[in-house]
């Protein structure tokens, strides 16, 4: 594939640009372009690299007369219109493993935070109070952690929380019972999971099958006081239903790094963030120095691999729309 000119539309580590330029690919960095400007610019490029901020809509793709490849420096590609890209034989790439450890570690931090009320206790002390009894917590040892999505991140979470003595159960339609056992997760159906889980953490993409996966019906099937963690994608948990469950005491706490709207302005989301039993962070799952370098380098390596300019990079492990591969010349 000939990739001569690439537009980087979201801020990525400079390692990405350096690697592309090293292999004679011209790179322009133009961040936070308004949609109309992006549509006007994209016709000049063979490749586009984004993170989560830029929305690569059908209109953007239609305007990309020379566009051959779109790279997402990260895992989720819900900001890219895959159907439109595939229809135009535009390859979509991501870096599914680049931020796995960072997202895993934040998940584990949030689970322990919920168990020991770290965030509200710290805020209380800074406000001049000494509320030891109010913020008494629970041990994680012996508790049941349900992991929805047993890919790279889910597996890493399982291994770490097992070290805390948690029993790990999980659900993933494409991971076999035997494979789940290899990392000590008991594979179950969702209906079996809900009444057993003390904590639920989600690590799935946002697709039609997972939108509002955790909703009022699910909360009614769970243990009273179940705690919820989401470092995956906003929209997997129905925010209004979660808020209701928190108010009624059916949900004992939630830790949220992602939201349906980012930055959030919806009144329901804002009320959810302010709830005393919610720990909220501004989409920090991949926000570590190590992850940012890793995803930047990985997406650049895949672009170089497509050009065939280096024997060092010969595969594109992050291909999302595989049907396009057979049409690449």
Q: How big is the Rg?
A: 21 Å
C-alpha end-to-end distance: 6 Å
Q: pLDDT under 50 segments (min length 5)?
A: none
Report the total helices: 13
Q: Would you tell me the overall average pLDDT?
A: 95
Strand content: 5-15%
Taken in chain order, the helices and strands follow as: EHEHEHEHEHHEHEHEHEHEHEHEH
The strand line-up of the biggest sheet is 8-7-6-9-10-11-12
- Total number of strands: 12
SS-based structural class?
alpha/beta
- Approximate shape: elongated
Helix content: 25-40%
> For the report, how would you describe the main beta sheet?
7 strands, parallel
In short:
The protein has 329 residues and is of the alpha/beta class. It contains 13 helices and twelve strands. The chain has helices at 14-22, 35-41, 58-63, 82-87, 100-116, 118-126, 152-162, 177-182, 190-193, 216-221, 239-248, 267-274, 289-307; strands at 5-8, 26-29, 47-50, 69-72, 91-93, 144-148, 167-171, 186-187, 199-202, 226-230, 251-256, 278-280.
Outline the structure in words.
There is one protein chain. Helices cover 36% and strands 15% of the residues. The chain is α/β, with parallel strands linked by helices. The chain has a seven-stranded parallel beta sheet with strand order 8-7-6-9-10-11-12, sandwiched between helices. A five-stranded parallel beta sheet has the order 2-1-3-4-5. Strand 11, helix 12 and strand 12 form a beta-alpha-beta unit. The longest helix is centred in the last third of the chain and has 19 residues, at 289-307. The chain is elongated, with a radius of gyration of 21 Å.
């Amino acid at each position: 594939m000939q990739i001569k000119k690439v537009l980087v539309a979201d801020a990525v580590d400079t390692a990405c640009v350096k690697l592309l330029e090293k292999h004679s690919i011209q790179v322009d960095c133009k961040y936070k372009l308004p949609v109309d400007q992006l549509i006007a610019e994209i016709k000049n490029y063979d490749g586009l690299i984004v993170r989560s901020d830029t929305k690569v809509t059908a209109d953007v793709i239609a305007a990309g007369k020379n566009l051959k490849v779109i790279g997402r420096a990260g895992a989720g590609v819900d900001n890219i219109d895959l159907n439109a890209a595939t229809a135009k034989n535009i390859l979509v790439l991501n870096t599914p493993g680049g931020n796995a450890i960072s997202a895993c570690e934040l998940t584990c931090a949030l689970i322990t935070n919920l168990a020991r009320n770290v965030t509200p206790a710290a805020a209380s002390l800074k406000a001049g109070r000494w509320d030891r009894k109010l913020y008494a917590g629970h041990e994680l040892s012996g508790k049941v952690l349900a992991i929805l999505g047993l890919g790279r991140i889910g597996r890493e979470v399982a291994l770490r929380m097992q070290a805390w003595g948690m029993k790990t159960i999980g659900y993933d339609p494409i991971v076999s019972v035997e494979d789940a056992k290899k990392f000590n997760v008991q594979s179950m159906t969702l209906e079996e999971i809900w009444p057993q889980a003390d904590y639920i953490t989600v690590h799935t993409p946002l697709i039609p099958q997972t939108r509002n996966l955790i909703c009022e019906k699910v909360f009614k099937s769970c243990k009273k006081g179940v705690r919820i963690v989401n470092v995956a994608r906003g929209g997997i948990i129905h925010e209004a239903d979660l808020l209701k469950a928190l108010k009624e005491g059916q949900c004992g706490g939630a830790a949220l790094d992602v939201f349906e709207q980012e930055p959030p302005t919806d009144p329901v989301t804002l009320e959810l963030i302010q709830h005393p039993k919610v720990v909220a962070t501004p989409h920090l799952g991949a926000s570590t120095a190590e992850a940012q370098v890793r995803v930047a380098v990985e997406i650049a390596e895949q672009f170089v691999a497509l050009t065939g300019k280096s024997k060092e990079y010969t595969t594109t492990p992050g291909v999302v729309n595989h049907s396009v591969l057979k049409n690449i010349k």
